[in-house]
Design brief:
The protein is an alpha/beta fold. It folds into 2 domains: 156 residues, Rossmann fold; 108 residues, Rossmann fold (3-Layer(aba) Sandwich). It contains 10 helices and 8 strands. The protein has a 4-stranded parallel beta sheet with strand order 2-1-3-4, sandwiched between helices. Strands 6-5-7-8 form a 4-stranded parallel beta sheet, sandwiched between helices. It is globular. The two termini are 27 Å apart. Bound molecules: zinc ion (ZN). The site of zinc ion has 4 residues, from loops.
Length: 315
């Protein structure tokens, strides 16, 4: 997706605040005894991996997710300087499934690299782009053959988190026990959310659904949702051609729900509502949210899906 400009400055602020907070906390903790100790650095290609690393890492490990807040990290093209920072990291956490294509062309030190989704499944899902696939005027991007938003299957996310754990243990063997303890807490959180998501998804099981963007393949498979994707951006108005594509899709896939990565424009929401479609924002959280963290973003998505079933009171 292309991130909405309105949230851009908020994201920059959050990012800077987090950076500042992270640094000053670490500095304060380190100051008395550990000044001579090397502060290990972990670089990640997306926010979910940074979140897992932050949850699991010992105090003296600095987790850095360097993509600018206004880009989709899946399609980010880092500068040579940014690639240099990745190359210099003590641990490099990659996603796998073709995520962040730049890593194929960069020379990264294999011994310090963990491809977190590797081996978590036998095969990755195809991106399955249909004739409705389009590229917006700005921020053109193509999705390639493989679907990469792996972490929206929370069991797959847990598998990736376990690879992060192994990488961190190699990096900081003295903290092995603490890392295992932190992993148990993360495992509990992700498993609980997976159970909630599974329960609400059961309600939608046989109902056709739409998605604004081809990023929900693993969510659909894991939770057995019947999702067909368009290729729309939340901040861009739908063209007459887009609307014709929606109508054509609705003919064979009569959906009443449509997942969006972020709130679309009011006109878009109205145009979809006119077609009997309710919008549910399910933020894939590839970037840090302006408020909360990976877990709270996922929890809100589960709540929105629950709310749309009409079985529970909604906020
Ligand atoms: Zn796209």
């Amino acid at each position: 997706m292309v991130f909405r400009r309105a949230t851009q400055s908020a994201r920059v602020m959050t990012f800077l605040t987090l950076l500042a907070a992270g640094c000053s906390m670490k500095d304060a903790e380190q100051a008395p005894a550990r000044t001579e100790q090397h502060q290990a650095t972990v670089f990640t290609v997306n926010y979910p991996l940074a979140y897992f690393a932050q949850r699991l890492a010992p105090e003296n490990v600095n987790v850095v997710f360097p993509a600018p807040p206004d880009v989709d990290p899946a399609f980010w093209k880092p500068s040579p300087e940014a690639i240099g920072r990745f190359q210099g990291a003590d641990l490099i956490l990659l996603n796998g499934a073709g995520y962040a294509r730049w890593v194929r062309h960069a020379t990264l030190p294999k011994s310090r690299m963990v491809v977190t989704a590797k081996g978590c499944r036998d095969t990755f899902l195809p991106a399955q782009q249909t004739a409705s696939h389009q590229h917006g005027p700005d921020g053109k991007h193509a999705h390639g053959d493989t679907a990469f938003t792996t972490w929206l299957d929370l069991r797959l996310a847990l598998c990736q988190a376990s690879r992060v754990r192994e990488g961190l243990i190699q990096l900081a063997p003295a903290s092995e026990e603490a890392i295992h303890g932190r992993f148990a807490a993360l495992e509990h959180d992700l498993t609980q959310l997976d159970t909630r998501l599974r329960a609400v998804a059961n309600t939608w099981r046989d109902q056709p659904m739409l998605a604004s963007h081809p990023v929900y393949q693993y969510l659909a498979e894991a939770y057995r949702l019947r999702i067909e994707s368009m290729h729309f951006e939340p901040g861009e108005a739908l063209t007459p051609k887009d609307l014709r594509a929606v109508d054509a899709l609705l003919e064979r896939h009569p959906a009443k729900l449509m997942l969006w990565e972020a709130q679309p424009l009011p006109t878009t929401e109205q145009q979809l509502r006119n077609r009997g479609i309710t919008i549910i924002v399910v933020d894939p959280a590839a970037q840090p949210p302006s408020d909360g963290d990976f877990l709270t973003v996922m929890t809100v998505s589960v709540e929105r899906l629950t709310c749309a079933t009409g079985t529970e009171a909604c906020r």
